[in-house]
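protien #1 (seq + structre)
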Amino acid sequence: MMEHNDVLVDLSGCAPDGAAPGRTVTVPAYGFAYGALVLPGLLAALCGHGVRTLTVEVVAACVRALALITPADQMLPSVDARLLVSAVARHVSRALGHPVPHRDHHR
């Protein structure tokens, strides 16, 4: 998993100590509700495409999606914003040159 990546982001706090010495980032135990802000949409776009490396273009796509759905009076959208997952997935898919996932109208 670490072969093509600079850091290991340990979202669940269970990475072995020697997995990526000096290159492991853990999510704070509290006060970090926005840590999951782009993750569902990012994973939705990456799954099934064999993408193992996050590039600057992919991160920039996540940022563009957040900027587009953030209300003018806020710094970031709500974690439960209705369009969050689909917007991030759509922008990441475009950045990767993959077909844009269809929006699920049944949610």
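ok now protien #2
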Amino acid sequence: MGTPQSQRELPAVTRLGHLREALAAVAIALARVHRPMAWFLGAAATALTPVLRRRAVPAPHGHTFGAVPPSLRQYAEAEEAVRRLQDTLTRLATA
């Protein structure tokens, strides 16, 4: 995840792609850990799950399957959550 400024400059589809990649990385990591780290990553995955209901491009013929376009605030909040998660994991790895 880039800086807030660099993320704002990206197209919506790219921003959403980054958020989904982050969620996938958390899910993969969760499958490989246990104990407190599993609880921590599970909570992170739960917090990022709304990203899966978002869409960045128009749906043909209105078939969105419940997906909604996120607001700029929702993008910013999810990206900030990923940055905080990255910082926390970095601190844990170097402690």
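The CA atoms of residues 31 and 87 lie 21 Å apart.
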